[in-house]
Each structure stands twice: as C-alpha cells, then as structure tokens.
Write a structure and sequence with these properties.
The structure holds two protein chains of two kinds. By secondary structure, chain A is mainly alpha-helical. Chain A has a domain at 18-219 and 438-476: Alpha Horseshoe (Serine Threonine Protein Phosphatase 5, Tetratricopeptide repeat). In chain A, 44% of the residues lie in helices and 4% in strands. Chain A is built from 16 helices and six strands. The N and C termini of chain A lie far apart (69 Å). Chain B folds into three domains: 1-75, Immunoglobulin-like (Sandwich); 110-251 and 315-390 and 446-667 and 702-826 and 863-892 and 963-1044, TonB-dependent receptor, beta-barrel domain (Maltoporin, Chain A), CATH 2.40.170.20; 834-856 and 893-962, no CATH class. Chain B is built from eight helices and 57 strands. Chain B starts with a strand and ends with a strand. Classes of the chains: A mainly alpha, B mainly beta. At the A-B interface, helix 1, helix 2, helix 4 and helix 9 of A face strand 30, strand 34, strand 35, strand 36 and strand 37 of B.
Chain lengths: 476, 1045
C-alpha cells in the first residue's frame, strides 16, 4: 500500500541539474532585469527619453511618482530568479572544483547585487539566499554591502584556476565561445572592472579616501580590465528571445512607442552638431527629429501630434552590455584622472568617445575630439572640467544603459541640473530639467522605493518607507 | 382492529408511482407501492398513514373508515422529502439525520431550462452560493458551500454522481497557459466540467453542507458535497419522454455611461482620440477619424447612447432531450440522449456551445444479488470570446477592451464595413485608417480571432450488491471519469502599413496555440452494510468501507506567434521557436471508514462515524490522518405531546472533523525550465542562443507538510406547523479550518517566491434559515412560497507567521486581494489619496492640484456578501403552474477593470463632476517641505481631467465596486394538458410553457458598469477578485414543450 502511494516525485521537473545548465539562466535574469525595467527607468531619469504624449505606460516614472509595488517583479526576478541560481552554481561548481565557473557565478551575482544596491541602498546580502537559515533575511547597510561585494570578488579572483578541474564552460552567455584559459582571463577582467566600478561609485561617499586609494592601487598594479565588451549578443527577432528592452518596451506592450526623444538629449546632440548619433538613437517623427521636454507627457496631441516626437530606435537583436567598451574607457579615464594621470585620462576619454560611436555603428569623425572640436578633452581645464567632460560624454554614450549615467550624475553632478526649462533662453543644452509633471517639488529622484514584495512578507526587516528623493548612501 | 386499506399512488403528472413508502405513523410498519403504484396495508382506524417518496411532498392521511385510498403525490420543489440521499449514496430517513442537507428536485432544476444544472441551483439552498462567470454560453459556474475556508487551496465542494466522485476541472484558459487560470492575460472560459451533465437526467441534487454530512467522502468533501442522483428506469410501463425548449438571449447589462461629452482629450475635440474627454456634444457636424486619401468622415457630434447594445446580437439556446425507460421486477433500463445548442450575444458564433449527452443505465435484481450499470458520454464543442488583457505579440487585442475605448459619439456597428468591398467608407475602418491608433476596430478583432474547444468525456459506474445475510450485505461500487479535451486558439496577423495614419500603433503578430488536456479518475468503494433491529426499541444501520481513489491528469501545450501566412492557423505557420510544455500528475488515496446510526424508538437517532486516509501527496510517514464525526437527531414531536398546529419538531446537533491533503509535488524541491522576466513585460525563455537551461524552482518544497484539518459544530431545528403547510428549518454552524495548506509568498531575497506550508486558520460561522409556506392549498389551487436566508461570518483568525499578517492572493493596478488576519477571507485593498492625518484633507501636488498617493493600502471590503436571500414561489391552478425565484445578495466588493478603463477614457458616468471645468479638490491642502500644510489654490486643469479620473493611482478605489445585487433568476409558466384531452392519443402527458431567466437585475448606484457576478479568471477564491474587461451577462426567455408517451 505504501508503495502504491509512492507517486509524489514530480515527473515534470528535474530534481538535480548540473551547474552548467543553471549558469546561463542566472546570467539571463540579471541581464533581463537590468536591460529591461532598469534600462527603462535609467534612460528616463538620465533624460535620454521621456514618456510619449499619446500613451501612459511610464507616466509614474517620468513624474517620479513611484509606488512600492512598481519594482516587485524586478526585485523578485533578481533575487529568486537570478541571484539564487548563481548561489546554486557557486555551490555545485565549488563541489566539482570548477573555479572558472565559481568565478563566473561570483562575478555575475555580484553584478546583480550591485545593481540592486544602487537602486535600493540597503539590501539583504549577508542573510540572503539561505532559506534553510532564515525566511526573513535582514537588510544590510549600503557601505557593508559594498565592502562584502568587493571581498567576494577578491576571494573569487584569488582562486586556483590551475587545479585541473577549472574547465571551459560553454554555456556561459558572455564568453562561452572562448577557450577555457581565455574565458578565465576574461572573467578576471570582468571582476576587476566591476571592482573598479564599485570603487568609483564611492568617490563622493564618506568612504571616498579608501576608494581612491584602492583605485590607485589597482592602476599601479597594472590590473587587467576588460578590453572587449562583456555582452550578450545571441538575441534573435522572435518573442521571448529578444533584447530585454525591446521585448518589454516594444514587443509585449500594446503601444510600442512609449519612449520618445527627450529634449534634454536632443538639445545637447544638436548643439554639438551630432545628428549622426541622434539619428542612430531615434527614428525621426513626422516633422523630423523632435524631442518632448522631459516629462511633458500631458501635452495635447492637437499641439504635438502623435507621430511628431521621435521614437527610440530599439531592435530585437540589440546586444545587452554588462560592460560596453566605451563604458570601461570612461571608467578608466575617470580613474586615471582621479589618480592624477591626466594624459592617460585623455587617452581613455578619446578612446571612449570613439568606442561610443562604434557601439552604435556610427561613423566617427575624429575632428570632434581633436583640439577645438566640440568634444575635445579640456586639456587646459582643471580636474573638475575634465571630470565634467568625461561624465557628459559618458552620459551621451550610455544610451540604453541610462542607469549608469543616472548614477554617475548623482555622484559627480554631471550633467548639471538646469535651473530653467528647455524653453528658457538661458537653458544650457544637455542640462537635466526637472520633469514637467514631477511630484517631488523640484527635487530630482534618487532611488527606487523598497518593494512591497519584500515588505509584505518581511516587514520586520524591510527598511522604513524611503522617499524617491532620498539619496543612496554613496550619492553626493 | 387492523383492517386492509388498498389504493393507488399517482404522481401529479398522472403516472403511477412505484416504490412509494407508506408507513403507519408511530410504528415501524410500512409497505411500498408495487410497479403499478398499488399498495395494501393493514391499519387501525385513526391511524395516520404517511406516504413518502423522494422528490414528492409527503402526505399524511388519518384513516377514517375508508378501505380504498388513492393518493396523488405532488412533486416537491421545497425540499421536504422524507428520504434523503446521504454520503456514499446511502438513503436514509430524513428524520434520522443530524445535520443540514437540502434536496433540489428535477422540477426545480429544469423549470428555467438552464443548460447547466448547477446554474439552476441559484438561490434555492441557503448556505449554497452559486456564481456564474458570465452570460456566455457554457460559462463556468462556481459553487461554494458555507463560505470560503481555504486561503489558497480548493474551496469548491466535491461533486458526486450516483455515489462516484467526479472531476470538475475548470477550463478557463489563458495565454499564459503554464500558469493555469489566474492571470489577467487574454483568457477564455470554456466552463467547468460539472456543467456537462444533462439537467433532464437528474432526478435530484442533494447538497451536503457540513462536514458531518460529507466527512465519509474524505478529504475532498471538506467543503461540502453536491450529490447528483440520476434518473433510473422504473419497473412497469415503458415510457418515452421528450422535452425541448428554445430561448432567446440578450444582453442584461451594458455599462451605464455618460452621454454629455464626446471624442477628444484634455477638454478639446480630437478626431483620433480613443476617449470622450472632448467638449460637450453639441450635435454639430464634425469631421472625425483619420484623413485618408485627402478625405475624412463626417458625423454629428452627438451621443450614440445605445452603441454598445447595437453592437450585440440576440443569442439563442436550444435544449432537447429524449429518454426511453422501462423495466420489470428483475431488470430496468433507461436510455437518454440530449442536445444543447447555444449562441451568445456577440455577433458571429464566436461565443457558442454545443453539447451532446448519451446516458445508458441498466439494473438487474435477483434474489440476493443486484447489479447496476451507468454509462454516460458527453461531447462538447465550445467557442468563447477572450477577455482580459490583449497581447499584440501574440493573438492580439481583446474585444471588450477595444469596445470600451470607443468615444460616446461613435457608432460601433459602422466599423463592420471594414471588409465589405461594397461599403463606400470601408477604407476608413481598416487597421491602417481606423479612427484611432490607440485601439483596434472591434470587428477586426472579432473576425480575426477564434478558438475551438472540444471535449469527450465518459463517466459512469458499476455497482454490485449481494445479501450475505438477512441484515448484512456487501456492495462494491466502482466508477470512473475520463475526459480528453482539445483546444485551439488563434489570432490573425495584423500589420499596419508604414506611413499610414495609424503607423504609430503596434503590429499584431498573430498566434496559434493548442492544448490537449486529459483527466482520469478511478474510484472504488467496498461497503459492508448492516441493518438490524436490536430488540423492539433500538435499530441500527451501519457500514464500514474501503476506498481507493486515483486521479491522473496531463496537459500538452504548443504555441507559436509571428504567423507568416495571414489567416492560416497552424503551428507550422511561423519561423519562431514554438513555446511548448507538457505536464502530468498522479495522486492516490486510500481510505477506511465506517459509520453507525442507532435509532431509539424511532425518534432519537445517534450517528457516529470515522475515516482514516492515506494520501500520496503528503510526506511519507506523515501521510495518514484520522477524523471522526458524530450527530444526534431528535424528533421531539414523536415523544412529547405537541399542539395540533405543530405536528413536527426536530432538533439536531452535529460535530465533525475532516482532513485535507495537498496538491501533488509540493514536497520536494525541483528545477524549472529556464524563463526569466524582464522585470516589466515579457520574458526571455530557454533554449536561448542554442543553450538550454534550468533554474532553481520558485518553491523550495516542504518535507514537513501536514494535512489541513477542519472542525465543525452544527445545530439545527426543523419545525412544521399547520399540517406542515408552514415549515421552518434553521441551522447554525461554526467551522474552523486549521493548518491550512497555503502557498505562502516568501521574501524573494530568500531565493524563493513561495512555499507550500501549514499556516493559518479561517473560521466560518453562519446561520441558514429556510421558511416554507403553502398559504393556499385547495383541490384546484395551490400557492407556495419559500424563503431562505444565509449569513456567513467569515474571518481569517491566524496566518501563523509572527512577522506577517497577510497573504496576497491577486492584484491588478495596485488593487489587491488579500488574506488578512481579523478580516474576512478575500479582503480587497487599494491605494488612497494622501490625507492629512488630523483633518482628513486631501494633500495635492502644488503644481497640478492632483492628489498625492498614500503609500499605505486601505481596506475596501471583502468579496463575501453580508448576507444572501432567496425567494421562490409557485402557484398551481388546474393544469397551470407559475413559478419564480429570485435572489438578493447584500454587501461585498469586487474589482472592475471595465470601470477603470471607462474612467480612463472619459466614458464613465462619474467623470462629469463640475461639468469637467477646472476645480480645486474641495478642502485640499498642499504640504511644504517642512511638513506644514496650507490651503491648496491650484485647480486641476482641463488637460489633467483624464489623469485625475483615469491614471492617478490615488483613485483606484473607484474601480472597487459594490457586489450587492438583486436578480430575478427564473420565471416559468407551464400548462399541463388535461389527461382527458389526451385519452385518445398515444401521448400520456403533455405540457408546454414559457420561461425567462435573469430578466431583472438591480445593482446599487455605485455600480454603473458590470454584473457583479462577472469574473474573468476562473473558479478559485482568488478569481472572485473581480473582472478584467469581462463580457456582459445575459437575460433569456423562451418556450418549452414536454411530452411523455
């Protein structure tokens, strides 16, 4: 009788899966959330694009009117969809002695934790992903999260990759086509680049001195950073296999044209005669390239027709970048600048601008960065002017990766916030304007709210409701 | 001195009634009528003869000096039968039963000619709630007995046909097929399986309300049981019964919308907007829609008040059945066939239903051995119009959403011309040129989508009985329920020409999906029955039994999108990777049970019972659970001398417990096929880039899972006055369900989303009362009234977590359905405007005057009614019978997306405040950075009106509507042709009549939009959250004819 009742093993799902079959879906989770919902808010809050005046999808983002439930899906997919899978891979790969795969899992997981930490400030880390220990993990403070993430990267980088079992992982979505040795080298570069990003993030924080010292030490030690993009390119133009931004903003929405050109970005590119990039980023509207003032989604269609504002150019097969090459260039330009090596800063700046054009397949006119060119590095200027130049070029380049320039701006102040609207004659092209329908009393947003997905089931630990204008710990 | 009394018992239709019980009141003596309805019994003068038969009103005759008494028994629509069917198909005397049951006769089930027998139960049984998802033919019916007990588990009763449990799979099918039936995406309702039974073949339906009544069925009847007894052949004359009805249906409720403002946005006319935020309609001729080939349409700017009704058709419904039955003393048979054909109110046959049923029943009775076999076959074809949220990447938009987005000054029917080459305006209605890019021509949606649902089902049972001894018999009943369903759903490609006026609208990529589903249920009961009189004053009726139950199911699903050839709906018609999955499941259960009823002096009855189950779905070693039950019934009027006006008084008390197991595969952790969310819309699925992957599943399993246990106490009284022309039955119960098997949401940072755990406690206390009156009963006229009342006090008492007090069950646009401690199960919460805590003043955005949103949720009410009432009445006069029943449900709330979308696009009746001129929210304030408050002076601008009503999160509560309603469910007038008239014809009985269903619905003013019973999502508790662009409900009226040969 007991045997007859022994039919409760799920025939529909496997109970044990080798880690190489889990790794790619872990990477995909972090990619999909970062390149999906975070790319949408990132591009909006860094004023690359704005909500169309003919639809409503992202009005609450564009007016800074976030609710605790808005990012439940992102929170859930990251933690219960991606970071937990990385944890599973870490454990099983460590048991198998494949330190290549351990490094990949640590790097990918840390990248995901960093994205969450920068949107939410405090996040569960030390007690996260251990359901056998606690179902109500505590939230760790921002600085502690950063310290722990760097510690984890260091530990993974210090693993023995010549132990004979650190074999090639062909299911890796980023570097899976490389040989085992090349793959290990690239993931080390990835981890180092991520470390550099974490240090750069802290340059305006109470922890800035230590961060600066660490940056200098990394450069002094000739640490190897990425020299090729860390990207996922295997998208095809079909449902559920496309670039996450295209999939979530175009294919699966009943209005595919919610994201329109922001006047902020348009004004900057046009002021610098950069129609080439404008045309690479946006499909012109019925009267040519037309940007809506940031957040001006309520303007009547009898004033601005539905087909007038330019629409974001998104493709199903756009790559997703964990790091794009221009991004690494600009990070290194900033790192060298902060380390006092202005020549290297200029070199990486120039390379960054060129790589940014290349990223969007736009022919680069080198005269733009030559002396006297519109984007020339301000060699004669002070450090602040140089930092501003790097940050503004990075902002223009981080199209579709807008969260990075949003965070850069919150830490460096560049591009600057405009005291006036784009229509004002004193408006400086490229300066960020407070959204026309903003609900935060002229204070720019800084963060996403702690989620109701967490508060509903972990109320004892979820921090008190934050305001959308509350700064992340490292923000200026 | 005993003397012999003889006579014939006939039914009200003139046929003789075999098997009628005739007993002498106060004694154990009794006889039954023979095949031709004749009887003979010895009795004293002055004795009371009691004539009772299932489905008929019992009659008492005080014996005078007659020696011949012919009795005509009246069919009982008032559930006062003296013999009732109890668990496991055991018939027992009503008076011996210590708990509440109700029996609904065939007459009540068929009088309104419902295609679904379950729908016919509406408002007839106190404590039984019946909800029909929509007016579409074949729509789901959700039954709930005595309130919701289980937070995330099953709340539906167990269905049993002739002693064998049945499957009742819901066939709500959404585009998110892997998730089953609970999301807001495009979904179709193909009904639930228990709606497949032909109502004409049902002899009676008995509702076992409490656990005491149903516990012997085990775990699965913890929510009560619905016992369906089908008709059997009777010995005697062969009869042929034919009945047929035809009805027309029409829409019952379309949203009541404003008719003042026309097309536009922000207060200005706009020829291409999908809303009515324009100026006041002035009747002036205006150009509207897109400019096509330098031309544009013209029409007066005036309201099209009936544009929704004009769009809808009249539907129809045919129901016919034919049955042949007969038998001898030793054998009987019944063969039946029925056909139902219905087409709903949406143009075309996009909502239609056809059902064939065949029933074969035969019995054999030898000296000690009897056998009975019952086989039923059902074939069903159905088409349903999708509801919920559309999907341009797949099958496309959803009809109701497109219809709601039509401005008040537009005709809908004109758009039909899009594919008519002879319509001179057809080009204006094409996808490229339809008046707005924000919505689709609903006729295009209708004509380019469709589905087919086909199901074959066989169910039946074999029963063998052998008398071992005089008082002891053994019975083996084995039954099965096997169904295979096949569903295909499609939507055409709809490409919009670049450069055309609507080029900012999305292309629709088209899709085809196919699902095959099967359910198999096997059930065996072996029963040992014992009946005896222990001495003259005590009798015993007892049995022990053994039960084996196995349920298996499978699903196979395949779908493609991005169709290449338009209009060709085949899985091969695409170059993209198909989405596929298959699932299979098996669950098994073994039970041992027993019960004994001791009767003392025929007035006091004590029943004790117990059952132990072993289930496959709980962890090994923890999968056995035991639960007892006991009840007492005392017919006080048989012991104490009562006034003549009160001939019947019975009190009863019951206590019982029932265990319930989990769904299969909740114990062990697994990996799931890789699929990740982008955090907003859309997913990335594996295989991806040529790589397959599995992820750690969202549920970590639970090796400590225990059964959930329900305990119930019940007390009741049954009274009869004035020759039992007044009957009162009332029950009070208190039921608590503990250790609930709940799929608990987890903090995602644990790495998991949910876990199946034992948590929480839900209590239902309730009062059920039923009053039966026969104010007039003469030879020619009888008038009867029944009135029932049901009040349930439902409360979540604990959720077992120290740090969490609620569970999210469903949500849409931040309106949430939750289980919250100290609230009724199914509490609805929504955002609110931010208010000053002290004065309650609305705090607004100083820039716009629009209210700010309070980040805290506010309780809006529960999905449970405060109380429900049903009223039924009938009048018979000569051959005429007029009957009606109605119900009133008071209280409760539900979510309406139809309301939301109408608010959004300015069609809502309520959006006319202040003539839509700019206004300052009365009493509103603004808050400075230091927290200080000042009077608000910023009016909401015209251009913000749509935001105020339609987009602002603060007013989501406007979409939570009261669930209160009154419905006139059935009205029927039947005429039975007098026997004398038929004497020379081969027809034995003939009747004809007219009927109407849902002719009247009333809802309170706050609900201008939809039928509160409407639901988009399926048959679980969480699906009763509300509707998401659900279709309208319908009213029907028709004629019927019944002939017996």
């Amino acid at each position: 009788c007991e045997n007859w009742l022994d039919v409760n093993e799920d025939p529909n799902n496997p109970t044990n899966v080798a880690p190489q079959y889990v790794l790619p879906v872990a990477q995909a989770s972090v990619m999909a959330v970062t390149g999906g919902s975070f790319a949408i808010i990132g591009g909006m809050w860094s004023q690359h694009w704005t909500q169309a005046n003919v639809s409503t999808q992202y009005k609450t983002i564009d007016s800074y009117d976030l609710q605790p439930a808005d990012y439940n899906n992102a929170w859930t997919e990251m933690y219960a969809g991606g970071l937990n899978d990385f944890e599973d891979v870490k454990r099983k790969a460590a048991e198998a002695g494949n330190n290549n795969m351990v490094l990949q899992a640590v790097a990918g997981q840390t990248y995901g934790f960093q994205i969450l930490a920068d949107w939410f400030d405090k996040i569960p880390l030390s007690e996260a992903l251990q359901i056998e220990v606690t179902k109500t993990p505590k939230y760790d403070d921002g600085p502690a999260v950063y310290a722990e993430l760097i510690k984890r990267l260091d530990a993974a980088l210090a693993l023995d990759f010549n132990n004979g079992t650190s074999t090639q992982v062909s299911s890796d979505l980023v570097f899976g086509k490389l040989s085992g040795a090349e793959q290990i080298a690239q993931w080390k570069r990835f981890a180092n680049t991520l470390k550099l990003k974490l240090y750069l993030r802290q340059t305006s924080s109470p922890n800035s001195a230590a961060a600066l010292a660490a940056i200098k030490a990394m450069l002094a030690a000739n640490t190897e950073f990425l020299t090729t993009p860390a990207s996922v390119t295997s998208f095809v133009d079909e449902p559920s296999r496309s670039n996450p931004l295209y999939e979530s903003n175009v294919r699966q929405l009943n209005t595919g044209t919610n994201l329109r050109l922001s006047k902020t970005l348009q004004s900057y590119l046009e002021a610098n005669n950069d129609q080439a990039r404008l045309n690479a980023y946006f499909t012109p509207g019925s009267s040519g390239q037309f940007g809506l003032a940031q957040g001006n989604y309520d303007v009547s269609t009898s004033v601005v027709g539905p087909n007038v504002p330019s629409v974001t150019k998104l493709s199903a097969t756009d790559p997703f970048f964990f790091f794009s090459l221009d991004e690494v260039d600009f990070m290194l330009a900033e790192a060298h600048l902060r380390s006092g090596n202005d020549a290297q800063a200029k070199a990486f700046y120039d390379k960054g601008v060129a790589d940014a054009y290349a990223k969007f397949n736009v022919t680069f006119d080198a005269s733009k960065i030559a002396a006297g060119g519109v984007y020339a590095f301000p060699t004669a200027g002070n450090t602040e002017a140089k930092l501003k130049a790097i940050m503004i070029q990075k902002w223009v380049a981080m199209y579709k990766q807008g969260y990075e320039s949003f965070w850069d701006q919150a830490r460096t102040g560049y591009p600057e916030n405009s005291p006036v609207a784009t229509t004002d004659e004193d408006y400086v092209p490229g300066q960020w304007t407070y959204a026309i329908n903003g609900v935060t009393g002229k204070v720019f947003p800084k963060r996403i709210l702690y989620t109701s997905a967490s508060r509903d089931v972990n109320p004892g630990n979820t921090p008190a409701l934050a305001k959308v204008t509350d700064k992340i710990w490292w923000m200026k | 001195q005993d003397r012999e009394v003889t006579g014939t018992v006939t039914a009200d239709d003139g046929s003789t009634l075999p098997g009628v019980n005739i007993s002498i009141k106060g004694t154990t003596r009794g006889v039954t009528t023979s095949l031709d309805g004749k009887y003979s019994i010895a009795a004293d003068q002055g004795a009371t003869l009691v004539y009772s038969f299932v489905g008929y009103v019992t009659q008492n005759i005080v014996l005078g000096n007659q020696t011949n008494i012919d009795i005509k028994l009246v069919s009982d629509s008032q559930q006062l039968g003296e013999v009732v069917v109890t668990a496991l198909g055991i018939s027992r005397e009503r008076k011996s039963i210590g708990y509440s049951t109700a029996t609904v006769s065939n007459l009540s089930i068929t009088e309104g000619r419902n295609t679904s027998a379950l729908d016919a139960l509406n408002a007839r049984v106190p404590g039984l709630s019946v909800s029909t998802a929509s007016g579409a033919p074949g729509a789901s019916t959700v039954l709930n007995i005595r309130g919701f007990n289980s937070v995330t588990g099953n709340n539906q009763p167990l269905y049993v046909v002739d002693g064998v449990p049945m499957n009742n799979r819901g066939n709500t099918s959404s585009s998110n097929a892997a998730n089953g039936n609970d999301d807001f995406n495009r979904s179709m309702d193909f009904g639930n399986q228990m709606n497949d039974i032909n109502p004409n073949e049902i002899e009676s339906i008995t509702v076992l309300k409490g656990i005491s009544a149903s516990a012997l069925y085990g775990s699965r009847a913890a929510n009560g049981a619905i016992l369906i007894t089908t008709k059997k052949g009777k010995s005697g004359q062969t009869t042929v019964d034919f009945s047929s009805s035809f009805a027309q249906s029409q829409v019952l409720r379309v949203p009541h919308l404003q008719n003042t403002y026309g097309q536009g946005w922000s207060g200005l006319f706009d020829p291409i907007e999908n809303g009515s935020w324009g100026p006041k309609m002035d009747g002036q001729t205006r150009l509207w829609g897109n400019v096509v080939d330098n031309s544009q349409l013209l029409k007066p700017f005036s309201a099209q008040k009936d544009n929704l009704r004009d769009f809808l058709d009249r539907g129809y419904e045919w129901n016919s059945s034919l049955a042949v039955a007969g038998g001898t003393d030793a054998a009987n048979y019944r063969i039946s066939y029925s056909y139902a054909d219905a087409d709903g109110v949406i143009p075309t046959n996009a909502d239609s239903y056809q059902r064939h049923t065949v029933g074969l029943n035969g019995g054999l009775k030898l000296k000690k051995f009897s056998a009975n076999a019952n086989m039923n076959y059902v074939h069903k074809d159905q088409k349903a119009v999708a509801t919920g949220q559309g999907n341009d990447a797949g099958a496309g938009k959803v009809l109701w959403q497109e219809i709601i987005q039509i401005p008040r000054d537009h005709s809908i029917v004109d758009s039909k011309g899009y594919n008519d080459p002879n319509n001179p305006f057809n080009k204006f209605y094409s996808l490229d040129n339809y008046f707005t890019p924000y919505a689709q021509n609903p006729y295009w949606t209708l004509y380019n989508q469709g589905n087919d649902y086909a199901e074959d089902r066989i169910f039946g049972n074999l029963e063998f009985k052998y008398d071992l001894l005089k008082n002891l018999n053994v019975l083996w009943r084995v039954g099965g329920d096997y169904s295979d369903a096949f569903q295909k759903d499609w939507g055409n490609v709809g490409k919009i020409t670049p450069g055309s006026p609507n080029s900012s609208a999305n292309d629709v990529f088209g899709s085809v999906s196919q699902i095959a589903r099967g359910n198999r249920q096997f059930n065996s009961d072996l029963l040992l029955n014992f009946n005896s009189n222990l001495g003259s004053r005590i009798d015993v009726q007892a049995f022990i039994g053994h039960n084996i139950n196995q349920r298996t199911a499978f699903t196979q699903y395949a779908s493609v999108t991005n169709l290449d050839l338009p209009g060709f709906y085949n899985l091969k018609n695409s170059s993209v990777t198909p989405t596929t999955f298959t699932t299979e499941s098996t669950r098994r259960l073994v039970g041992l049970y027993g019960t004994a009823t001791f009767g003392f002096d025929n007035w006091l009855y004590l029943t004790v019972g117990a059952r132990n189950d072993w289930t496959s779905t709980l962890p090994k070693g923890k999968n056995s659970y035991f639960y007892p039950s006991a009840s007492i019934s005392a017919v006080l009027s048989d012991v104490f001398k009562m006034p003549a006006q009160i001939p019947f008084v019975k009190v009863r008390f019951a206590a019982a417990s029932a265990g319930n197991d989990a769904d299969p595969y909740q114990i062990l952790p697994v990996y799931a096929s890789g699929s990740v969310s982008t955090g907003s819309f859309g997913t990335i699925d594996f295989p991806f880039g040529g790589i397959n992957a599995y992820e750690v599943a969202n549920n970590p399993g639970n090796l400590d899972l225990k059964p959930e246990i329900s305990n119930e106490y019940e007390a009741g009284v049954e009274l009869g006055f004035f020759g039992r022309r007044v009957g009162i039955e009332a029950s009070y119960y208190d039921k608590v369900t503990k250790n609930q098997i709940i799929n608990l949401n987890l903090e995602p940072a644990t790495g998991y989303q949910n876990q199946t755990v034992n948590l929480g406690q839900v209590r239902n206390k309730g009062i059920e009362a039923m009053l039966t009156l026969v104010p007039v009963r003469t030879d020619k006229v009888e008038w009867g009234v029944t009135f029932n009342y049901n009040k349930i006090n439902n409360k979540v008492e604990a959720l077992g977590l120290s740090d969490s007090t609620n569970i999210l069950l469903n949500s849409s646009y931040d309106v949430k359905l939750r289980a919250v401690v100290n609230k009724p199960l199914g509490a609805i919460y929504s955002p609110d405007v931010l208010r000053d805590k002290e004065t309650g003043a609305t705090i607004v955005n100083p820039e716009t005057g629009l209210p700010l949103v309070d980040p805290n949720e506010h309780y809006r009410g529960s999905i449970n009614p405060d109380f429900t009432m049903g009223i039924g009445t009938y009048v018979t006069y000569k051959g005429f019978r007029l009957s009606a029943n109605a119900d009133y449900r008071k209280g409760g709330v539900f979510y309406s997306y139809t309301a939301r979308l109408n608010y959004f696009n300015g069609n809502a009746y309520e959006s006319q405040y202040n003539d839509r001129e700019p206004f300052i929210i009365p009493g509103s304030v603004v808050q400075a950075a230091d927290g200080s408050l000042a009077e608000n002076t910023t009016p909401i601008s015209r251009s913000d009106m749509a935001t105020y009503y339609g987009v602002n999160n603060a007013y989501q509560y406007n979409h939570v509507l009261p669930k209160t309603f009154f419905k006139l469910r059935n009205v029927a007038l039947n005429y039975t042709v007098p026997k004398s008239f038929l004497a020379k014809m081969p027809i034995r009985v003939a009747s004809l009549g007219i009927f109407g269903r849902n002719l009247v619905m009333w809802t309170p003013k706050k609900n201008h939009y939809v039928d509160p019973e409407a639901n988009t999502f399926g048959t679980n508790l969480k699906n009763l959250y509300g509707e998401f662009a659900a279709g309208p409900s319908t009213a029907s009226y028709g004629v019927q004819l019944n002939l017996s040969f």
